[in-house]
User: What shape does this take?
Amino acid sequence: QHSCEPNCMTVAGPAGSGLKMHIVPLRPIKAGEQLTWNYLPYWKQLWPTQLRRQALREGWHFHCRCRRCSGGDSAPELTMQFRCPGCDKGELCPATPCAVEEPAGAGHVASLRSVSEMVCRSCELRIHRDIPEGSPHAGYVERCVAQEAVGFSLPWRGVRGRDFGAVDPGMLDLMAEHHWVHADHASHELENGPAILAEDLDGARPQGTPRTELVRKALDVFAEAAERVASALVRFLGHSRSVALPELQLTRAICTGSPADWDACLQVHITAFRDLPAVESTMAAARCLAESRRSFFEHELARQPQAAAELFRHQPFLEQEEVLVRQWVPAALPDNARDPSADLETWSLRRMWLCPDVGWTPPDEEGEEEKDCEVDEEEEEEEEEGAEEEEPGASASVGATARERVGQGPTRRRLSAKTSPT
Assistant: This one.
């Protein structure tokens, strides 16, 4: 059964010709207590109550009344964090879940009228709505609620997400860095990273901006986004054992190439997947990545046909990959890239993450041109139309899953589509 504050998580992996699933407890579970896990993808887990309920109602046809949604044990709305006027920490949040029961289709902005009190998780200051003028913190709850509405209603820029530049920064100055709007925007940047970079590269052609500079700048943005989302998840969930965290840390390591981030990636995998036989291959890959990117490319990616089918049809692998990386981002690599100590392996990870459709012409298929990084607009539209014509409910692989956010159409991305909530 679903819960937005589950006591279990599920982890699946290959077992023979099928799959094996582990149900992993996230806290001590009493005898007779119902096992629960979260149906929502990680980026919807960051949403406030009204939006989570809306997503569950549209996707699974039920109204969630778990502790986190119903306010059991005085559960606050942890996703909506503001700066506290008492201690100046970003720990002030609505004292109860931000939701309204009626009408059933009421949106997030309508649910803000339910906020009557806010409490700081740091200094325990409580502030009520409608405090008389002249009293300490008068109007502070109203200001927080107004900024919540502004942040939620920011203009949407397609694959780039919310346009924070559309409003004066002072209109959002009470929002904490880990407020759900910021975390959701960061998750959108991660989900649509390839499309964002493609736009940047296309826009840079007339100005002659070096592509390498644009890619490095984009990688910095994505690394920061992965860190923000991971921190928000740990904060909201109250623990660090989530199936989403290994992928987020891997993304950060891919973007930075930092040995410390690769080590952290391994530690996050160990925390999330320790003692789970079904994910032994994933753990082996994580250890291999932490020790040697070259070894990972030459061996471990072979177990993922979707990611590596094209790459491993040709030998020697690293020489062919160098050609692709140089084609993707001219001068991205130093002249000594053939040296195993150079960062070709990390750039290869980045290339496959941000531009997975790039490949080269197999030797036995003469005349076929190499695929280019940019996807023709016409081809892109055809692919999207084809995706829409698929039979509803048809199963899809991880590399072709479509994630549609409430109320908006899908956006092309590496693994899925992520659009804005309403």
Summary: The chain is about 40% helix and 5% strand. The first helix runs from residue 42 to 45. Residues 231 and 324 are 34 Å apart (CA to CA). Strands lie at 8-15, 18-25, 92-94, 117-120, 126-128.
